[in-house]
């Protein structure tokens, strides 16, 4: 009779009840198929991009867990896994009393099985491409635990289906205790039967108890009692031994079969417990809990593990963004903390000016801008930082692409702006709406990057200190060291069309992939649409001084940037009757979206070199701003004639000051005041601003003093202030010089020159540098580079003055005759 016939007969006799619908497999299979179809439909709609219109970050068409639909699938996977777990931990009294879990054991078994399959599918769709990359994550471990749990459960269910049918014929039931009791009863019965028997009978009784005997062994043993009075007794013992043997054999089989049925629990249950433990760890990891909530000291110790520290080594970014990384690694952003001038100047400011300032602000005002993440990890002020691979990284990928705070003028110097606005973890912000999934980070749009990425520059490219603590920066009252971004805002407000990134991050021709080195299908989920890729060299006027300025990789771009900034003209020379000639030079800012020069203007030398020659003999008649080598200084009167300045002793290449020199370098003084009228009242200019001037007893310095400020130099020859040139503005300067009588024709050649650092400035820093500090600055001064920004020439024949006519004697008028005569 088949098993089905047996069940039908048992049900007909009332021995077994008919299965209800929820105790059968097919309804749950149908529910599982419908649920699976719904999950696939959810993924299809999400990948179509239809939901991205609501929020391109949350509903990005990316098949990964961090998206909105990915998180929903993760919740479904966890919920259905919890439903499976409920079957394992439920008790019968809960089943009978709580409506939500009421039901038969068989019904709950099918829920357990099919909910597990739905959980597995939801987890697979939740992980998406994350299942196939090389990253080792808790999510991937969690998924494979779920796979093993499901496989072990399926095998366990198959064993339960197959084994009992064959076992019923051998063991009848699974009660090992009943078989054990039966064997014990037979043993006692054998002891009773043998009681009072001969010693030989007891010996054979013990032999029978040693182990179950075969029928042949028993027949051979009976021969020992043939024709003896104890033959019948021994036959009775053999019958009891056979019954006992059957009970022991059944017990052994029961144990074996029960082990086959329950043995999978040894695999299934521990895997389930591991899954339960790993799930919260996965949530802690994916939501970057350590990176966001651990104190800075602990994050510093975990800096080598991006998932725990929440920041990233640029070299790791370079595995996919190779071209961008190679551009960046030679930039001043990359060298912002390791540049020799930065190290020397920062350390002297710390020791001589900010040594007693409050930590972290404003004591770390310099290093916060030059390397905010490294500064936070190092928790230090003196350079170079040590202790982690990020110790010498300046402005890294994370500084810009993990910043989600509000930018403000000069805010990069303070922890409450850049560090507070840093979103540690695996979210990277950029300008693209069509983000492509990858194993390393999530991509989100940052409005500031799409509307005007230049807004981010204000954090560090305005440098100021609210000296009076009134919450606003006022020129003259506060320390204002750099106003580049403020100059840019004025340029834009006046209709300027360009942005910071147009000049300093131009589009890279021929490159259409941001992550051009990423392997599609492994390091990048799918192919990205063509991109406009911008140069991350951040070319400006600076370069690290431990590289020769003439050979550093970005020099060609640096020269192009400088030469596109200015227009330069020289008028024809004119003579005067007293043997003195003059020539006018005009300089226009035509290509910069900020003043010329800008940045730390006290460290920028943009000057006019002019040479006047006799056109016939080529002899030099007059010159200004001429240097013999890149390390010679300009003979600027504001420095050379400053009797209070200890820095002027480092000027080289000058015998006397040049009174007509046009040098736009501001002068950094250690004590500043504001311009005042004769009554001592502050004077406000046409812009409503105060003008910083040197205070009484002030001197030029090479380090920034809190009480100081950069001030404008004046040209001694005409007292003209050498103010930096705003965009679209032209400045004219006149040069006068005596001309020999023999000279009739003049040629004038003028050049606009630029040097990012003054040599005497560097020599003063080097003179105050400790001998054990590295790198030593003095040997690196020879790496200074001078760039020709523009040239202009003119030629004119001088108009010689005519000699004055000799005076003629006065003629006596003829007498007038009177009519009367």
Short structural summary:
The protein is α+β, with helices and mostly antiparallel strands and 821 residues long. The chain is built from 27 helices and 16 strands. The radius of gyration is 46 Å and the shape is elongated.
Fold topology:
Blueprint: H1 3-12, H2 25-47, H3 68-89, H4 92-97, H5 105-127, H6 138-171, H7 176-194, H8 199-210, H9 215-222, H10 231-262, H11 265-286, H12 289-293, H13 296-301, H14 306-309, H15 314-317, H16 322-328, H17 340-352, H18 365-370, H19 372-378, H20 397-401, E1 427-430, E2 442-445, H21 447-452, H22 458-461, E3 462-465, E4 479-483, H23 484-493, H24 500-504, H25 555-563, E5 566-570, E6 574-575, E7 580-589, E8 605-614, E9 620-624, H26 637-640, E10 667-669, E11 672-674, E12 692-694, E13 709-711, E14 730-738, E15 745-755, H27 759-767, E16 787-797
Parallel strand pairs: 1-2
Antiparallel strand pairs: 3-4, 5-7, 6-7, 7-14, 8-9, 8-15, 10-13, 11-12, 15-16
Helix pairs in contact: 2-5, 3-5, 5-6, 6-10, 6-11, 7-8, 7-10, 8-10
What does this structure look like?
There is one protein chain. This protein has 821 residues and is of the alpha+beta class. 38% of the residues lie in helices and 11% in strands. The protein contains 27 helices and 16 strands. The strands form 6 sheets. Strands 5, 6, 7 and 14 form a 4-stranded antiparallel beta sheet that branches. Strands 9-8-15-16 form a 4-stranded antiparallel beta sheet. A two-stranded parallel ribbon has the order 1-2. A hairpin with a 5-residue loop joins strand 8 and strand 9. Helix 7 (176-194) packs antiparallel against helix 8 (199-210) and helix 8 (199-210) runs parallel beside helix 10. The radius of gyration is 46 Å and the shape is elongated. The model is unreliable at 1-6, 9-15 and 814-821 (pLDDT under 50).
């Amino acid at each position: 009779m088949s098993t089905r016939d047996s069940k039908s007969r048992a049900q007909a006799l009332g021995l077994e009840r008919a299965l209800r619908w929820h105790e059968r497999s097919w309804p749950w299979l149908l529910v599982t198929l419908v649920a699976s179809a719904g999950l696939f439909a959810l993924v299809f709609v999400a990948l179509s991009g239809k939901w991205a219109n609501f929020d391109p970050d949350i509903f990005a068409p990316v098949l990964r867990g961090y998206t909105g639909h990915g998180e929903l699938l993760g919740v479904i996977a966890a919920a259905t896994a919890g439903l499976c777990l409920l079957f394992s931990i439920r008790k019968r009294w809960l089943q009978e009393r709580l409506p939500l879990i009421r039901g038969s054991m068989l019904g709950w078994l099918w829920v357990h099985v099919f909910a597990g399959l739905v959980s597995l599918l939801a987890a697979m769709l939740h992980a998406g491409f994350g299942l196939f990359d090389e990253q080792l994550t808790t999510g991937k471990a969690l998924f494979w635990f779920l796979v093993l749990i499901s496989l072990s459960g399926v095998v366990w269910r198959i064993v339960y289906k197959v084994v009992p049918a064959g076992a019923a014929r051998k063991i009848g039931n699974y009660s090992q205790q009943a078989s054990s009791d039966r064997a014990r009863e037979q043993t006692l019965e054998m002891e009773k039967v043998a009681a009072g028997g001969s010693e030989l009978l007891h010996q054979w009784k013990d032999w029978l108890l040693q182990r179950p005997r075969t029928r042949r062994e028993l027949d051979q043993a009976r021969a020992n009692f043939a024709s003896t009075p104890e033959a019948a007794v021994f036959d009775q013992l053999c019958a009891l031994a056979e019954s006992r043997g059957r009970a022991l054999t059944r017990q052994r089989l029961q144990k074996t079969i029960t082990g086959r049925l329950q043995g999978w629990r040894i695999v299934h249950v521990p895997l389930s417990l591991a899954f339960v433990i790993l799930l919260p760890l996965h949530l802690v990891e994916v939501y970057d809990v350590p990176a966001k909530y651990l104190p800075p000291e602990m994050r510093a110790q975990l800096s080598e593990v991006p998932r725990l520290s929440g920041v990233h080594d640029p070299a790791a970014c370079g595995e996919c963004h190779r071209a961008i990384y190679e551009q960046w690694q030679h930039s001043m952003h990359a060298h912002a903390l390791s540049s020799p001038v930065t190290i020397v100047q920062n350390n002297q400011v710390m020791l001589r000016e900010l040594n007693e300032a409050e930590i972290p602000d404003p004591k770390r005002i310099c290093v916060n801008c030059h390397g905010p993440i490294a500064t936070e990890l190092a928790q230090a002020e003196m350079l170079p930082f040590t202790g982690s691979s990020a110790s010498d990284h300046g402005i890294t990928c994370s500084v810009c692409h993990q910043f989600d705070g509000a930018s403000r003028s000069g805010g990069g110097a303070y922890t409450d702006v850049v560090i507070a606005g840093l979103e540690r973890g695996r979210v990277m912000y950029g300008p693209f709406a069509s983000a492509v999934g990858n194993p390393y980070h999530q991509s989100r749009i940052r409005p500031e990057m799409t509307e005007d990425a230049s807004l981010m520059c204000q954090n560090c490219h305005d440098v100021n200190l609210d000296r009076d603590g009134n919450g606003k920066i006022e020129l003259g009252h506060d320390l204002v060291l750099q106003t580049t971004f403020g100059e840019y805002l004025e340029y834009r407000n006046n209709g300027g069309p360009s942005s910071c990134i147009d000049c300093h991050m131009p589009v890279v021709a021929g490159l259409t992939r941001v992550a051009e080195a990423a392997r599609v299908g492994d390091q990048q989920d799918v192919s990205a649409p063509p991109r406009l890729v911008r140069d991350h060299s951040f070319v400006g006027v600076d370069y690290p001084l431990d590289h020769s300025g003439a050979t550093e990789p970005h020099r060609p771009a640096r020269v192009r940037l400088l030469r596109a900034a200015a227009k330069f003209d020289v008028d024809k020379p004119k003579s005067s009757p007293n043997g003195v000639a003059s020539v006018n030079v005009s300089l226009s800012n035509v290509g910069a979206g900020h003043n010329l020069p800008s940045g730390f203007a006290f460290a920028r030398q943009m000057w006019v070199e002019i040479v006047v020659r006799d056109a016939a003999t080529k002899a030099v008649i007059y010159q200004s701003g001429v240097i013999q080598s890149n390390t010679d200084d300009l003979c600027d009167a504001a420095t050379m004639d400053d009797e209070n300045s200890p820095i002027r002793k480092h000027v080289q290449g000058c015998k006397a000051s040049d009174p007509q020199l046009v040098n736009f370098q501001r002068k950094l003084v250690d004590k500043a005041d504001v311009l005042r009228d004769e009554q001592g009242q502050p004077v406000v200019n046409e812009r409503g601003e105060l003008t910083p001037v040197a205070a009484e007893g002030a001197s030029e310095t090479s380090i920034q003093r809190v009480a100081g400020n950069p001030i404008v130099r004046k040209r001694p020859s005409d007292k003209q202030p050498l103010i930096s040139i705003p965009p679209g503005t032209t400045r004219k300067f006149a040069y006068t010089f005596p001309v020999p009588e023999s000279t009739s024709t003049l040629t004038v050649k003028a050049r606009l020159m630029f040097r990012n650092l003054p040599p005497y400035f560097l020599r003063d820093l080097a003179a105050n540098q400790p001998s054990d500090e590295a790198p030593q600055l003095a040997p690196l001064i020879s790496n200074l580079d001078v760039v020709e920004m523009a040239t202009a020439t003119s030629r004119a024949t001088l108009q010689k003055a005519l000699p004055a006519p000799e005076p003629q004697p006065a003629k006596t008028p003829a007498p007038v005759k009177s009519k009367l005569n």
